[in-house]
Amino acid sequence: MKTITAQEWELLWFFEVEPELLDAGVPWIYNDALYRVTRNSCTLTFAVQPAYRDVRLILSVDGQTGYELSAMGVDDVVYRKEGCNETLEVQLAPHNSLLLSMKPHIRIHQVWGRE
User: Fold this and answer.
1) What local confidence, expressed as pLDDT, does residue 84 receive?
2) DSSP annotation string for the chain
3) Is the pLDDT of residue 98 over 80?
4) Would the pTM count as exceeding 0.70?
5) CB-count burial class (<10 Å; 0-12, 13-18, 19+) for 33
6) Domain definitions of the chain by residue range
7) Do strands 33-39 and 76-82 pair parallel, antiparallel, or not at all (unpaired)?
8) What are phi and psi of 15, to 5 degrees?
9) Mean pLDDT for the stretch of residues 32-50
10) How much is the mean pLDDT over the chain?
11) Are 65 and 82 in contact (CB under 8 A)?
12) Can you tell me the distance from the alpha carbon of 78 to that of 24, in angstroms, rounded to the nearest whole number?
């Protein structure tokens, strides 16, 4: 079974919050982990099922949903740290990625195209 590349500790480091786990006592890799971060008027919820490679992401501003993604069986979720920059890349399909940054503010950037 192919799981996501990102490790539990990397997502903890990236989001800086403990995840809300769906099933107590079930290992993280087989669980549904939800990370919730609020910065000013923006709230980001990012949920992942590592073993199934399912991702859900919701960005809300002042309680109103501004962006929502539900993706099942993504190619991968990869944590990247280059110097002070941290990025979480959700590889949706070949040549289609969603890049998520948390510092200095929440940023979502989608990249689609050929290499």
Assistant:
1) 86
2) ----SS-HHHHHHHH-SPPEESSTTS-GGGS-EEEEEEETTEEEEEEEETTTTEEEEEEEETTEEEEEEEESS-SEEEEEEETTEEEEEEEEETTEEEEEE-SSS-EEEEEE---
3) yes
4) yes
5) buried
6) 8-112
7) unpaired
8) -85, -20
9) 95
10) 93
11) no
12) 25
Among the listed residues 56, 79, 78, the one whose alpha carbon sits nearest the alpha carbon of residue 67 = 56
Predicted confidence band of residue 113 (pLDDT cuts 50, 70, 90): confident
Quote the CA–CA distance of 52 and 29 in Å, as a whole number: 9
The distance of Cα 30 from the centroid of its chain, to the nearest Å, equals 16
Residue type, 112: W
Phi, psi at 95, each rounded to 5°? 65, 25
Average pLDDT over residues 105-110: 92
